[in-house]
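To illustrate the input format used throughout this study, we show a single complete record. The first block contains the structure-token representation of the backbone; no residue identities are included at this stage. The design step must infer an amino acid for every position from geometry alone.
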């Protein structure tokens, strides 16, 4: 069987925009719901509950926007570098909650923006491997400008997410749609960085690596 036609630039942009909007719909919708509750129920107990919901949802929306700005946005001019400390900060805001913990072992250095974008996109996929939460561990593979990454995900019902493994290594015949655009875009970033991707199950761990 032949591989499906890859999306053109306009289709890819549209799919990525849909991906970002998907992340923001939930917290923004919760903010709207909180405001409606305050309008319909003026008692103090309800107002307090609604304000807590709004504060929590606003913080979530802000964290997701900051993450998406680095993971998908331009983040500076061509050839720009990004501080991995900034990447760690937005990754923790996006991924960590009461169920998921991030163990960040990447040293604080300046890396080419596409290499940092690759790391953040790899973390999205690793997070999808533990749908009920768990631990994410990210470590460098090599050092300096050619640094790669190794991410290990472990949690209840951990699994390789959907067709992601085949899409990442380029062997998939899966159409590039809203569900497949995340690993597809990650593969494009890896190719730009000269790194090969793999996503495998090793016992109870899901291991995602980007190596030169």
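Output of the design step:
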């Amino acid at each position: 069987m032949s591989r499906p036609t890859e999306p053109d630039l306009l289709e890819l942009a549209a799919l990525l925009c849909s991906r970002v909007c998907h992340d923001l719909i939930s917290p923004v919708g919760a903010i709207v719901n909180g405001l409606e509750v305050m309008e319909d129920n003026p008692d103090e107990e309800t107002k307090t509950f609604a304000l807590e919901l709004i504060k929590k949802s606003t913080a979530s929306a802000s964290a997701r926007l900051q993450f998406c700005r680095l993971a998908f946005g331009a983040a500076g001019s061509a050839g720009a570098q990004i501080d991995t400390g900034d990447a760690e900060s937005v990754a923790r805001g996006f991924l960590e909650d009461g169920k998921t913990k991030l163990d960040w072992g990447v040293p604080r250095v300046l890396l080419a923006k596409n290499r940092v974008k690759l790391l953040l996109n790899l973390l999205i996929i690793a997070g999808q491997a533990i749908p009920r939460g768990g631990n994410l561990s990210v470590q460098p593979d090599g050092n300096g400008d050619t640094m790669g990454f190794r991410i290990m995900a472990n949690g209840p019902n951990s699994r390789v997410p959907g067709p992601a493994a085949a899409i990442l290594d380029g062997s998939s015949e899966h159409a590039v749609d809203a569900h497949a655009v995340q690993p597809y875009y990650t593969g494009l970033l890896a190719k730009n960085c000269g790194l090969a991707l793999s996503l495998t199950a090793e016992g109870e761990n899901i291991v995602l690596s980007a190596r030169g």
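Structural context for interpreting the output: Residues 170 and 187 are 8 Å apart (CA to CA). The helical segments are 9-40, 44-72, 84-95, 113-128, 164-169, 181-193.
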